[in-house]
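Predict the 3D structure for this chain.
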Amino acid sequence: MTSVIASIKDLICSVFEVIFSTIKTAFDTVFSIFHTLFASIVSVFGILLNTAKDAVGAVGGVGKFIANRVRVGQSGLETRN
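Done. Predicted structure below.
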């Protein structure tokens, strides 16, 4: 009789283990999909911000170059040779 009760107990434990394992796998899959989408969106914004930062730096560099090449004299703007 004891072995029958132990077998039923093991069967019930196995059924619950399968159910909870399936639920956990489903939640992990859904979380993984959301995480992937969020990471993709964040990386796109990061790329855009880095591109904008580099463009502003390039414009600033061109502005510095132009400012260094132009000097203001008494007769107005003159360029350096």
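Residues 2-79 form one domain.
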